[in-house]
Fold this sequence. Notes:
It contains five helices and three strands. It is of the alpha+beta class.
Amino acid sequence: MLTSVDTDVIRVLGDPLRLRIVTLLARETLCTTHLVEETGARQTNLSNHMKVLREAGVVETEPCGRYTYYKLRPEVLAGLSEQFAVLAASARTAAGNKRACP
């Protein structure tokens, strides 16, 4: 069963820019400057999206001098993936079940 944390992560990843950020961070740890260059987003807009991703627990920060690096928390995505796998297995099992109309 999906928890409220899972549904929050799904909602957060529903934004195209945030999904792009997560895709980039799946490849490497990046700072804000790198993410601005890669996405073309304005720095303030990107910072707002990073805050949402941090609060949802999808990314974590790593200070490095005057820069802040972001890295993905793979266990969060893995947990979500496991929940979807359970739903898919349930759907396969229930494919033949059909409730009769009254």
